[in-house]
Amino acid sequence: MNELRVRLLKETFSIHRLDPDHPIPATVTGSPVFFIGRTKDELSIVCRANILIPHAQTEPDWACFMVEGPLDFTLTGIVARLSGALAAAEVSIFAISTFDTDYILVKQKDLVRAETALSEAGYQL
């Protein structure tokens, strides 16, 4: 049995892709929950679905599971175990990690299947 607890966040999220030099909209940084990644090839923003980002390629309707932390950096395989349980249930994911914890996003249409898979894998929801 896994000792990790996984909590479903209440918000629905969208994942946005922009050109790498695009400015980060103030509506995003003013939100209580958002994730930003920038490389030489792209700017990716994950934020609440009600925040519209013009000119973005957008993938809407994501639910987000948060691994309750903080997690120690010596822990290994957390995302691998979560993603493995979800892959076995044929649930696609988008994974994000912060300093303290990990987040797994799944499409809203797959949410019940994801919750069942995680519960059957021994995670406390």
Explain this structure.
- The structure is a single chain.
- The protein has helices at residues 26-29, 78-88, 111-120; strands spanning 6-8, 13-18, 34-38, 43-48, 57-67, 94-97, 102-107.
- By secondary structure, the protein is α+β, with helices and mostly antiparallel strands.
- It has a single domain (6-120), classed as VC0802-like (2-Layer Sandwich).
- Strands 1, 2, 3, 4, 5, 6 and 7 form a 7-stranded antiparallel beta sheet that branches.
- Helix 2 crosses helix 3 (111-120).
- It is globular, with a radius of gyration of 15 Å.
- The mean pLDDT is 91.
List the main descriptive attributes of the protein structure presented here.
125 residues, alpha+beta, VC0802-like, seven-stranded antiparallel beta sheet, 3 helices, 7 strands, 33% strand, globular
Q: Please indicate the count of domains.
A: 1
Q: Give unreliable regions as ranges.
A: none
- How many helix segments? 3
Distance between the termini: 13 Å
* The first-level CATH class name: Alpha Beta
The total beta strand count reads: 7
Our estimate of the beta-strand percent is 25-35%
The CATH architecture classification is 2-Layer Sandwich
Tell me roughly what share of residues is in helical segments.
Answer: 10-25%
Average residue pLDDT: 91
Q: What is the 3D form?
A: globular
Rg over CA atoms: 15 Å
Q: What structural class should be given to the helix and strand makeup?
A: alpha+beta
CATH topology: VC0802-like
Biggest sheet, in brief? 7 strands, antiparallel
What is the CATH superfamily? Answer: VC0802-like
Order of H and E elements: EEHEEEHEEH
